[in-house]
């Protein structure tokens, strides 16, 4: 199961030239397909011990090599082990989080139990998004889009069981919503319906 970002990474220490600092969470904002030399950049959403790397190279983004990430998808949210070496900060052991999107009438937003703290950690890339760092304690990334529309979009990223628990805590399961599943989650739903309960069991 996906672990909360604040949990220490396994085998933290020094391995070769890499100094490990713990687990973080980030969104993949760039990917260069160069065969065995493919690489990309993660824009950090949460970092261990409130690590500040904004003054580092590439505007504070975190380097990731193709050997350290499976199925890199632009816009996907990943947990990773943060390390630093002579070239800056990097990510290894990247794990993709699953996502469920909720479309909520703007008039129903007041019925939700959203956390108090809001941040825009990746605003240079995600200018229309808010994140709620308190949710990372549950192993969940909560993203809200700042679109002015009759519907508001919330995303919950994490392990499916943790997403359902978080959705219930936020009162999303008792609110008039439409649930939008990613293809990955839809395939999981067909394989194991335990993850979708209550109002979500009717999701398309």
TrEMBL record:
It comes from the Eukaryota. This is Uncharacterized protein.
